[in-house]
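Quick question: what would this complex look like in 3D?
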Amino acid sequence: MSTKTKDLTNNKIDELLQIRQDGIINYCKSTEALIKMGVKIGKKENNDMTVPVSFQPYIDKYNRSNLEFEWKATYLDNTIINQFEGDSEHHFGHIDQTKLKSIDLISNFTWPTDNEEKRIIIKLNWETGLFEITNGFTPQPVKEIIHMYPLQGEKKLILKTRKRVSMSQGDINPKYKEFFPMSDEFFFYNRFILGYQVANGDKKVIIVEPSGTIGIFDN
Amino acid sequence: MAATFGWTQQYGASPGSASDLGISGNLFNFKNKDDATAANYSTYPITAGNKSFEVWLKAKFTGTFNKIENIQFWRSTNFSPATGLSLMWGPGGVSAYATPVSAVAKAVSAIATSDPGSANVSIGGNITGNLAASGYTDYAVVQLVTTSAAAAGDTSLAIFTLNYDES
């Protein structure tokens, strides 16, 4: 083997080490970014779920249906209907909008804050048509829209969850599996939509990311 | 519990059979055969330059919900490498099942490669349709089309995403 050939071999090894290192770093960075966004990554073989750091303080008794938020409707007579009541579950169709006083989205995880209330609570005051936010992150331009200028006219409630699920076709080539056994992952991501529409079609609707960031929903 | 979602594949001679695939892992493979198992793909390989059999997928929803709507389907990640490989599908969804073939039939458009922004799979033959009780969406018919440039051996992963609104 000539010296030149040896050098080329070393260069090739270095190149492959660099590619491998870049791949590992990119894997770690992209996984961290996904988790911070609130994307849940599941592993089929053991059902382990990688959850965002902000979900670590998940409140066990509220950790159901893999939902980061659940709703609570309060009627004018102060009776309450919760999305989850013991073993049963309510949905949008169970809410009597003619009796509505307010509707809340409440996080099932705690929010890092000095406030006495540790959960994120997003209240839509049905009487004023404005939102009241406890904790979470609301960008300044969004605050102006949701805290001011209520829409006039009879309101129709908008309350839904936008769910994204991803699955794979194919698998890692068997000859590579011993080097990278991490396949069979699945990904899901929930966003929570709350607001109302008035007769002329105008809407005031927010979308809440699973990480607690609040934005305007325009879709 | 809220709505429970899972993938279902319809296969076989019309009217076909439904096979629940689940939600995760390697749910199906493209191959030169119409069946509903991710296995045996190496027994029925696609020769470079040919097409796979169509794969007729639909989303199944069960459980407690008011409405399921706004079904969006796209390919999130491509094969890597993807030389000589392209994924086609039946845009808008296909409401009537037909026996899968390995020719050009329902999968006539390149599959969406990003969030389409609005529903692109119909329910009950209507792109603005919805489910108010347990049931299925219409079909997302997908097909792998290869050229002679496709490499021999297994393809890599491709990730497909379904987005829906639940109330």
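Answer marked as accepted. Residues 116 and 134 of chain A are 10 Å apart (CA to CA).
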